């Protein structure tokens, strides 16, 4: 285990990180300000190794099981939209099915992904809603990304995220979600409540893994 003084929280910038867990692959640290649990930077994959894992995923646009999975975000967002809206699916991956689902019901969609749809011009636009499914756990600097996403949202608009939540240390130790080597940032309800306060948003937890922040 290397020197914790070299660590800084990627969400809030805090420097008071305490060791949270260690397994045979990685060390995990928790920020004492925002409670984000993150993987030590010396244990993170290179961009090339990370993309190789993403390339192995099968995100088929015709997969009904994948559609049902994404409906956990699609349905609560759709109920919050009145008329035709402009949305962004941030971190859409190689198979942008969620954007397709919104397009099918009439919304105008843009997509962005660092590896698969890296058109940064879409990040200079304004949106009525943004989705971010199974993305923020991959981010080394989630604070920077959330700041940018919030700046793109119109007032009264939702940012809908999907990610599994940290419960406590005991369950973290046997948690399958941390075993994905591309997962490096782990959020709890307390972390999202911190985010909501910092960005002046309303927050709603839907089920076990969907979080909606509505910009005031």
TrEMBL record:
InterPro entries: SAM-dependent_MTases_sf
Pfam families in alphabetical order: Methyltransf_23
Annotated signal peptide: none
MF-aspect GO terms: methyltransferase activity
GO biological process: methylation
SUPFAM superfamilies the UniProt entry points to: S-adenosyl-L-methionine-dependent methyltransferases
Transmembrane found in the keyword field: no
Protein name per its UniProtKB record: 2-polyprenyl-3-methyl-5-hydroxy-6-metoxy-1, 4-benzoquinol methylase
Native source organism of the sequence: Pseudoalteromonas luteoviolacea S4060-1
Lineage of the species this protein comes from: Bacteria, Pseudomonadati, Pseudomonadota, Gammaproteobacteria, Alteromonadales
């Amino acid at each position: 285990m290397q020197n914790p003084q070299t660590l800084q929280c990627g969400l809030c910038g805090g420097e008071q990180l305490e060791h949270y867990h260690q397994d045979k692959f990685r060390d995990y640290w928790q920020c004492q300000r925002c409670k984000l649990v993150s993987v030590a930077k010396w244990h993170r994959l290179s961009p090339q190794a990370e993309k190789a894992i993403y390339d192995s995923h099968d995100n088929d646009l015709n997969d009904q099981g994948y559609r049902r999975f994404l409906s956990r975000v699609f349905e609560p967002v759709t109920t919050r939209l009145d008329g035709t809206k402009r949305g962004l699916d941030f971190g859409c991956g190689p198979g942008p099915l969620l954007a397709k689902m919104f397009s099918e019901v009439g919304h105008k969609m843009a997509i962005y992904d660092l590896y698969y749809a890296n058109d940064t011009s879409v990040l200079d636009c304004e949106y009525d809603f943004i989705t971010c499914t199974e993305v923020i756990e991959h981010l080394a600097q989630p604070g920077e990304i959330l700041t940018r996403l919030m700046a793109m949202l119109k007032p009264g608009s939702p940012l809908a995220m999907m990610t599994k939540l940290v419960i406590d240390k005991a369950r973290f130790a046997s948690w399958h979600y941390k075993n994905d080597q591309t997962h490096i940032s782990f959020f709890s309800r307390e972390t999202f409540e911190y985010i909501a306060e910092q960005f002046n948003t309303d927050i709603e937890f839907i089920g076990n893994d969907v979080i909606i922040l509505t910009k005031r």
